[in-house]
Design goal:
binds adenosine monophosphate, alpha/beta, globular, seven-stranded parallel beta sheet
Length: 190
């Protein structure tokens, strides 16, 4: 079983219109604090990002925000346990990955997709071995997950690499899947 001390959460900088997304963000925050897992995230104060950070802080948990200076001036959350400003987006992402024991993509937009696609790809090529999961609130990621299955069917994604990404609509189940993720890196190119 994996020890999750710090978990990186990618999620919308907007709140969105479906109240299920906000509800699941709050539910995940409660679980993190109950299990003494620190939140690592993009450092913003808006949307689902701000909501999960605020909730963890209100409950007495730890939050590390990592934000590039270019974004930070306008949107950084100033009440975090730790706020790290980086020069570039790429440094920010590298630090988010370094500081975390696993990754969850909650519902979000292009930024969320970009970040989760990168950590999944990096795992596929053996750059790290940290678990990656989608919080599939209200079936939000069903079309993306179906696309991954299609990629396997069409021979463009190996079944064992598809298995590097887990998902659940329930935050507690998803955390258990990450903790129990026993998949091991095998080179993609074989
Ligand atoms: P999006 O899904 O397009 O709303 O983008 C959210 C993701 O991109 C988050 O996980 C952040 O790491 C990053 N991001 C986008 N906008 C912001 C912002 N205003 N402040 C901080 N991070 C952001």
């Amino acid at each position: 079983m994996r020890n999750l001390r710090e978990l990186c959460v990618f999620c919308g900088s907007s709140l969105g219109s479906n109240p299920a997304h906000a509800a699941n963000a709050v539910a995940l925050a409660h679980l993190l604090v109950a299990d003494d897992i620190g939140l690592v995230y993009g450092g913003g104060e808006t949307g689902l990002m701000g909501l999960i950070a605020d909730t963890v802080l209100e409950l007495g948990g730890r939050v590390t925000g990592i934000i590039p200076v270019s974004l930070g001036k306008e949107v950084a959350h100033r009440g975090l346990t730790e706020l790290i400003e980086t020069d570039t987006m790429h440094q920010r992402k590298a630090l988010m990955y370094e500081r975390s024991d696993g990754f969850i993509a909650m519902p979000g937009g292009l930024g969320t997709l970009e970040e989760v696609a990168e950590v999944a790809t990096w795992r596929q090529i053996g750059m790290h071995d940290k678990p990656v999961g989608f919080l599939d609130t209200d079936g939000y990621y069903s079309s993306l997950l179906a696309w991954l299955d299609r990629a396997v069917d069409d021979g463009l994604l190996k079944e064992k690499n598809r298995a590097l990404v887990v998902s659940s609509n329930d935050p507690a189940t998803l955390l258990d899947l990450l903790r129990n993720d026993a998949t091991e890196y095998e080179p993609k190119w074989q």
